[in-house]
Amino acid sequence: MKPRTAILISGRGSNMAALLHAAADPAYPAEVALVLSNRADAAGLAVARAAGVPTAVVESRAFKGDRAAFEAAMMAELVRHEIGLVALAGFMRVLTEGFCAAWRDRMINVHPSLLPSFRGLDTHARALAAGVRLHGCTVHLVRPGVDEGPILAQAAVPVLPGDDAGSLAARVLAQEHRLYPAALAWLAAGQVAVEGEVARIAAPAAAGALANPLPLAAPLSTSGD
Prior knowledge:
Layout: E1 4-9, H1 14-23, E2 31-37, H2 44-50, E3 55-57, H3 67-80, E4 85-88, H4 97-102, E5 107-111, H5 123-130, E6 134-141, E7 151-158, H6 165-188, E8 192-195, E9 198-201
Parallel strand pairs: 1-2, 1-4, 2-3, 4-5
Antiparallel strand pairs: 5-6, 6-7, 8-9
Keywords: Purine biosynthesis, Transferase
Catalytic activity: N(1)-(5-phospho-beta-D-ribosyl)glycinamide + (6R)-10-formyltetrahydrofolate = N(2)-formyl-N(1)-(5-phospho-beta-D-ribosyl)glycinamide + (6S)-5,6,7,8-tetrahydrofolate + H(+)
Pathway: Purine metabolism; IMP biosynthesis via de novo pathway; N(2)-formyl-N(1)-(5-phospho-D-ribosyl)glycinamide from N(1)-(5-phospho-D-ribosyl)glycinamide (10-formyl THF route): step 1/1
């Protein structure tokens, strides 16, 4: 059976929409069974409902800084929907060590930089200020530290003359929308093994350093070899 996957959002959910689009293919190895937001006004909830995906809201502001209670309420929703994998897609909350441990190697995130560079916020402006020539995005397994964890996939884009944070962000986001569904598929298909804090991926498209654009011409394999 396909792993039942929850996508956690806080806003518009553009990466969520990319995952929903990928999961609509019957050959995709994960089933999106829940979209959960910590904000009732998150625009992505309407997108999920329009796609026929169950939604839930656990308002983080209602818990007045009690992170343990907030995460317990989220966990109750995940258990109720029989979730096996979690994908963070613009989920703007730092998760505790206990929550990360409960979902160790079953929870992934997409971050708009080539980690370990530019963890945290304002990555595009910081990349421009640093004068880097390549920027990009990373999909990684989640650990308690901010934007830390074994890297599953990365895609790079050039930093062009005249770029500002907005133009660079748009170029990176286009790669996030391609990279995240591929990485979730590898995890759902059992093609990811973690050795220490290094992820090894058996999917043919992930052999060696990932090229940009991501080589996905061949169908995703679910055989594990």
